[in-house]
């Protein structure tokens, strides 16, 4: 039995809105050249054939409108050429988020899934991605005119300290300033009048009074390609400068020549030269790449190119993972309920960090055969110990989530109702994987640190390095009463060479004997604190303690 789909019954089929003067009157907007889509939304317009029965048409209309899609009857020039008498055509506009690539396929699949789920007599005949032009706009700020007109006044104006807190946005172009002045003069919005003698208009330094009017989608993609090439040219110029300062002889020439590879993209990106000829763009680009190469040469004296490449790769990885995570979690159950999920998860994560830090302390002391309960360990050290493995585990999980986000952005993953079950299963698996990875990394790091510390003590006779609050010291054990037997657990009591003490939290103190490192049996022993004296070692090189 198919799942029940809620639709609004007895809904009249919407008809195109036509002014009183008819379809030819001014104000009629062609659907193909309508207003631009909201940011981040793709519009796929498709022609859907529906059984020509009132109940089927009403059912299909309500079904599509429940998803937030616009539905209208097909006009004469949109109807199928070989239409059958038992069918009618509807124009459905599906709106979805994600990349341009694969949007049509995903929209058609979602409509067909919805039609099949509702057992509706309809099928998709034609589908196309709708891309509207985006006219460029310029924002002008109203400011007071400064007396004198000198350089300090111009600088004061450019910094925005004379702004009247009013801004107007108009279509970009050579006459945009006149249009903006006419707009602010026409009305005293908010009680702020514009007096031509006392006020003027300015464009912020980060804006552009005459931006490129790349309104078509193809022109926008071309501009983004040039911007990407310009960004790559900036990085290439800096890296080539660093290599040039380290090269010798004629090997300095190749990186210097290669540093100018991004000159033309840089010249096209600059608003001062983008409307000029290629010669001006090349000149400005070469000047910019030369400056960047000189900066790279200065920085290359202290930073090696390998470290720079590693930093750039790390920055690229952070950008990839961060963007992918945003693409994966936006418009999901997590973002809709983040206001209570995040505060609820804080105590859970906090307790997990404390527990993992304690486990790492236990694993570290277990290498020395010392019970963790007998050693004082600060709580802050436990949190610091768990920070590294949890960060590494979180990074691995976020990398996987980022891949899922990019797949979702390019419509590789399903975007229908089945995605919710997939997301729930994925979230559960990731949570379990995160916890297990953090525990495994923490245990491995603690064991490796303890092993290296034990080796340093046995071979070089030095104190083991501190491990997140656990501080070990080489000491010599001397009985309080000479000649009197001392109760020892895992004895005998070594008095001729130093042992390692991590402190004690009770009446008994556990000490690690480096001499037992390769012997079978326990390597640590315990004595009562009132029975022995722990003296710091004075001469560690021989590895012996002075006789009592």
Describe it.
This protein has 548 residues and is of the alpha+beta class. The chain is 45% helix and 15% strand. The protein has a six-stranded antiparallel β-sheet, with no helix packed on it. The chain has a four-stranded antiparallel β-sheet with strand order 2-3-1-4. It has a three-stranded antiparallel β-sheet with strand order 6-5-7, covered by helices on one side. A hairpin with a 6-residue loop joins strand 10 (499-501) and strand 11 (508-512). Helix 5 crosses helix 7 (263-269), helix 5 packs across helix 8 and helix 9 crosses helix 12 (379-409).
Secondary-structure element order, as H and E? EHEEHEEHEHEHHHHHHHHHEEEEEE
Helix coverage percent of residues? 40-55%
Distance between the termini: 91 Å
Strand order of the largest sheet: 9-12-11-10-8-13
How would you describe the shape?
A: extended
Strand residues, percent:
15-25%
Overall mean pLDDT stands at: 78
Computed Rg: 37 Å
Spans of 5+ residues with little confidence (pLDDT < 50)? 1-35
Number of strands: 13
SS-derived structural category: alpha+beta
> How many distinct helices?
13
Main sheet makeup: 6 strands, antiparallel
